[in-house]
Amino acid sequence: MERVTFGVLGPLVAEGDGRVLALKGPRHRAVLARLLVARRRVVPAGRLVADLWEEPPDGALGAVQTFVGALRRALEPDRPPRAPARLLVTEGPGYALRPEPDAVDAWRFEAAVAEAERLPTAAARARLEEALDLWRGPAYADFAAEDWARGERSRLTELRLRAVERRARAVLDLGLAAEAVPDLDAHLAEQPWREDAWGLLALALYRSGRQGDALAALRRARTALAAELGLDPGPELRRLERDILHQDPRLDPPREPSSAAARLWTEAASAYDRTVGDGARARLEATVALIRSLAVTGGGGLEAARRHRMEAVAAAEEYGDPELTARVIGAYDVPAIWTRADDPEQARRLVEAAVRTLAALPEGAHDAARARLLATIALESRGTRSPRGPRAAREAERLARRLDDPALLAFALNGRFMQSCVRAGLAPERDAIGAELLALATRHNLVTYEVLGHLIRLQARGALGDFPAADAHAAAIDRLSERHELPLAGVFTQWYRAMRPTGEEDTSEEAGSEAAFRAAAARLDGAGMPGLERGLLPLALLGTRLRRWARSSPAGRVGAELPAVDLDEEWGPYRPWAEALAPASTAEAGAAAPALRALPEPPADLLYEALCCVEAVAALATGDRPTLVRARARLLPAAAERAGAGSGLLDFGPVRDYLDGIDAVLGDSP
After folding, report:
1. DSSP-derived secondary structure for 544-609
2. Could you say which of 98, 125, 148 is where a domain stops?
3. Which of 63, 94, 204, 393 is 20 to 30 A distant from 320 in Cα terms?
4. What is the rounded CA–CA span in Å between residue 170 and residue 120?
């Protein structure tokens, strides 16, 4: 069975090879639904037990394991015995369901609604209708009484209601007011408290030449809101009623520039389809340009771009033309700020394709294409310790400078930035990269790279403790992202403001930071950046607590009380460090030594210093001298920096605080 899809917009269903899969009993279905609600995150086995039974029976944990085993057989019937599960995986203390992004109808629905926000009006209407057609009934209909499903059901239901209203707005903007009336009437019969929908209905009636009916609809709204909520209509509805009475010209159908843009898009796309054949190489290259634009539009666009990018590379390789393949791979010069891949397997495949293409290009020619392939290798090797990445970054930069191509140099500098985390203490180098990139992008109007330059400098100035400068870069990012419709940039500035210290001695700081971090994490949901999202929230909260601990605890005190570490959280790639610290923070400190000794060196990414500090704290609490020696050697080059602040997302405080603790234990001879 090659692909399994899931439906939760109605009763739960799983399908494979065109047939509905048998999911056995209600608890098997509940386990599957609970894992789908988690959206690819790990659900600890203990949490599954608590969610399945009000009073768990003896053997409940074993029963969950049995349910999981049965689900695996249903979902992957062709998996060889003892081969690792690919879809329903065991990770740490629990389980995660890892379907493809488009394999769950609810996820496709969300992506389609987000995509509709960026489309011309006519296309947006069509996309919203496709999205709404996915609904077969209430979300997670089989689990309406379950507490664990309530939040997701409510969220999806609200998103559906907004989609219905957005579709009605699109119909109105297309000048088809009469068509909007029946759908809005039906919508309000079920949801009479939605003021926006009442406003749309009244406007649709007015534009259909039914002024009296429009005023009657607003009177119905007043009655419904009073009956349902005990409220009077809000100011927008009151203003609409006044404008309808006075036949205000603002109520006439809009003549927006977007209408001309929509017409232009449709006509140009139609002409392209007529004149450029399906098999033309130009069509493939035009598609890559569209994918590149899609990647900077938001979460749904970024996910779609990532999915289609590899398909474009594979299509290019089928032509057997390395020059075409080089152009297709190198055209995706989307600025990247996070030094961990969102899809490591795809990154590996892209690197392999770029290496193959480099080898196939004729010698002594195509230097610009070579530079783009090398920059791609540097970018897609992020977070690894392969020597190929730094070598590719250096060669791409050399070629770009020789060719004097600003856009190519910006791409190459992005690759060099991605390879600038091979050890601690490199924030000044990244600051210099950001400064050059910012000057280059500003001079040559490379807006997305201008945003990237500000982001890199925000991170670097944070690592160096220069928060006023970082604040200025954050403000510049927000201005650029609003002006040029780059919504993902705001995700990073929100995280920065959540992590920014407001005063080390302020006892309210921890609680305030936690609320801000949780709000920032909510914005990451659906942003299309799993490499950033997974495990970030618990690590950020741990950093807030350890920052206070490192400042207030007597330096180097073996056995000093540590903040608790909850291993039921989804730690993602940071779980090994959480598992090393967890026993050190309890009476089981002796159990920390094996986990400490087994810790790998942190990945070559922006959280290198933060994870080294976690390792150091666990070693301080247990008195593990070999680990302290190792941590000290790794952290010493960053003695003047703040651990983790170079990510622009979290802050473990000054590295010097941790080094002082280590030195107090090791003395002068580590």
Report:
1. HHHHHHHHHSPTT-TT-------TTS--GGGHHHHHHHHHHTSTTGGGHHHHHHHPPPPPBSTTHH
2. 148
3. 393
4. 9
CB atoms inside a 10 Å sphere around CB 519: 13
Cβ(197)–Cβ(191) below 8 Å: yes
Sheet with 88-91, edge to edge strand ranges: 43-44, 94-97, 88-91
Give the C-alpha separation, 453 to 477, whole Å: 9
Asked if residues 468 and 651 have their Cβ atoms less than 8 Å apart, the reply is no
Q: Say whether both 18 and 139 belong to one domain.
A: yes
Q: At what angle do helices 536-552 and 575-584 cross, to 10 degrees?
A: 40
CB atoms within 10 A of CB 414: 25
Instruction: Report helix, strand or coil for 89.
Output: strand
What's the CATH code of the domain at 106? 1.10.10.10
**Structural domain includes residue 447:** no
Residue-wise pLDDT tens digits, 244-263: 988 888 888 765 545 566 66
Contact 316, 292 (CB under 8 A): no
Considering the domain architecture, whether residues 513 and 385 belong to the same structural domain is answered as: no
Selection from 71, 76, 84 nearest residue 36 by Cα: 71
Residues 516 and 654 in one domain: yes
Q: Work out the number of other CB atoms within 10 angstroms of the CB of residue 40.
A: 18
- Token pair recorded at residue 117: 């926000």
Residue 527 tokens read as 């942003």
- Classify burial at 474, counting beta carbons within 10 Å of its beta carbon; exposed 0-12, middle 13-18, buried 19 or more: buried
- Please give the tally of structural domains in the chain: 3
> Which tens digits make up the pLDDT trace of 300-342?
678 788 888 999 999 999 989 999 999 999 999 999 999 999 9
Domain containing 301 equals 278-396
Is the separation of the CB atoms in 138 and 10 below 8 Å?
yes
Q: Check: CB of residue 426 under 8 Å from CB of residue 459.
A: no
Q: What is the pLDDT of residues 621-655, one digit of tens each?
A: 888 899 999 999 999 999 999 999 999 999 999 99
Residues sharing a CB contact under 8 Å with residue 262, sequence separation 6 or more, in sequence order: 120, 121, 122, 123
Distances (CA, A) of 424 to 465, 511, 631, 665: 15, 29, 11, 22
Q: How far is CA 424 from the centre of its chain?
A: 26
Q: Which residue has the tokens 């629990």?
A: 94
The crossing angle, in degrees rounded to 10, of helices 105-116 and 147-173 is: 30
> 């942190």: which residue's tokens?
602
Q: Report yes or no on 124 lying in a domain.
A: yes
